Amino acid sequence: MKTNLFIMILIVFNVYSFAQEITNVYFDPLQDKIIVYYDLAGDKDEDYNVSIVLRREEYSGFQIVPKSVTGDVGEGKFAGKKKKIIWDVTKDYHIDPEITDYYFEVKVKEISGGIAWYYYVLAAVVGGATAAVLIGGDEEQPPVAQNPIGAPPIRP
After folding, report:
1. Is the residue at 133 inside a domain?
2. pLDDT tens digit string along 37-52?
3. What is the DSSP letter of 126?
4. Nearest-CA neighbor of 113 among 62, 75, 70, 149?
């Protein structure tokens, strides 16, 4: 029973954690600018905070957060296909043309105006189910031995 409850909690939280998805990320270098394209699958009426990070495949610790960006970046309603971020590269970083393993990571976070009512209901259901499992439903305890531990042995 406890395992089923744990699995149910994981499924519910995963559904709400991954409500938006970034796909189809690619970029085009144009003179002193780089244009990053992405698709954001999500609710078109929701506000999102979108940011990008320049990374390298060969060096996992390499990351540059571009500052001079315009377009479908920052806070706004960015859900849809073929969204575009324009980075004025010369203001932030010098790209070495010899290096070919650059890629962009597009990060997105849904901006919410508060906690929706169904989160409170979900918390109440999960809390109640957890309490029911922990408090009730225990199996019967084995009977206590007739001779308690520490009693002197019986002599023949």
Report:
1. no
2. 999 998 888 899 999 9
3. H
4. 75
